[in-house]
Amino acid sequence: DQQVKQNSPSLSVQEGRISILNCDYTNSMFDYFLWYKKYPAEGPTFLISISSIKDKNEDGRFTVFLNKSAKHLSLHIVPSQPGDSAVYFCAAILSGGGADGLTFGKGTHLIIQP
Amino acid sequence: DGGITQSPKYLFRKEGQNVTLSCEQNLNHDAMYWYRQDPGQGLRLIYYSQIVNDFQKGDIAEGYSVSREKKESFPLTVTSAQKNPTAFYLCASSMDSAYDNEQFFGPGTRLTVL
Q1: Within a 10 A sphere around the Cβ of A70, how many other Cβ atoms?
Q2: Per-residue pLDDT tens for A12-71?
Q3: φ/ψ (deg, to 5) at A24
Q4: Helix/strand/coil (H, E, C) string of B22-34?
Q5: Which of A23, A102, A104 to mutate to test the interface with B (most CBs of B within 10 A)?
Q6: Residue B106, exposed/middle/buried by CB under 10 A (0-12, 13-18, 19+)?
Q7: A30, burial (CB in 10 Å: exposed 0-12, middle 13-18, buried 19+)
Q8: Which residues in B lie closer than 8 A to residue A93 (C-beta atoms)?
Q9: SS3 assignment, position A82
Q10: How many Å is the Cα radius of gyration of chain A?
Q11: Residue B48 contacts residue B31 (beta carbons within 8 Å)
C-alpha cells in the first residue's frame, strides 16, 4: 500500500502561469517532506523541503505548503518556466530521522507549454 | 568537485549473470542508499547503509546484495535471483542527521538484462 501518493501522473501548464503539484500521505509518523525534480536519465535533484512544524516554506519561485490535518502537501511554482518541465517526486521521512531512506511517491510529469 | 558518481551509465548483461553497479561519493556522507526506478513508479529502496560495515535491507532487497567496506563506496550487486532486474538504478547519500536529511543522488545506471 502506497504511503506517499501523487495522484496526477502528468500536469500541463502554460508558461508564466502557476504550477501546483499535489502529494498525499497516509502515515502520520512522517514528519519531514521533500520535493525532488528529475530529468530523464538523470538522478533526482533536491528542490525544497518542509518540516511538519511548519505549514509553508518558500524558496524563490518554489513554495511548499503542508496541511498536516489533511495529510496533504503541495508544491507551487510561480511563474512556470520551460526548464521546469520534468518529473517531480514527493518524498517523506519518518520521525526520528531519514537515515533509513525516503519514501517516494510515483511522481508527476510537469509539462510547461510555451 | 564534491558529488556522487555511478558507473557505468548504461549496462547490458545476459540473463543469469550477476552484475555489480558502482557508487562512489566524496561528500564525506555517512549514509548511502540504493533505489530502483521503473516506468510509472516512484523510487523504491533496495538497501541502505548508515555507517561503514553496516547495511540494512530496504523494501525490495530480494535478489540484490551490497557491501560497505569504505565510507565512500557502496556497490550494488544484482544477482541472477532478481526476477526483473532491468531498471534504472540510483545511488544516493546523506549526512546522518535527524532533520534536514537531504539525499544527494548520483546520475544513475540503466541496467538492461537481455
Answers
A1: 9
A2: 999 999 999 999 999 998 988 999 999 988 889 999 999 999 999 999 999 999 999 999
A3: -120, 150
A4: EEEECCCCCEEEE
A5: A102
A6: buried
A7: buried
A8: 101
A9: helix
A10: 13
A11: yes
Helix/strand number for chain A, H first, E second = 0, 11
The whole-angstrom separation of Cα B76 and Cα B38 is 17
Can you give the pLDDT at residue B101? 67
pLDDT digits (tens, 9 = 90+) for B29-85: 988 999 999 887 788 999 999 889 999 999 899 999 999 999 999 999 999 888 899
DSSP A78: S
Task: Return the residue in B102, B104, B110 with the most chain A beta carbons within 10 A, the one to mutate for interface testing.
Answer: B102
- Taken as a whole, chain B contains a residue count of 114
Most confident residue range from A91-100, B5-14, B59-68: B59-68
Q: Are the beta carbons of B4 and A104 separated by less than 8 Å?
A: no
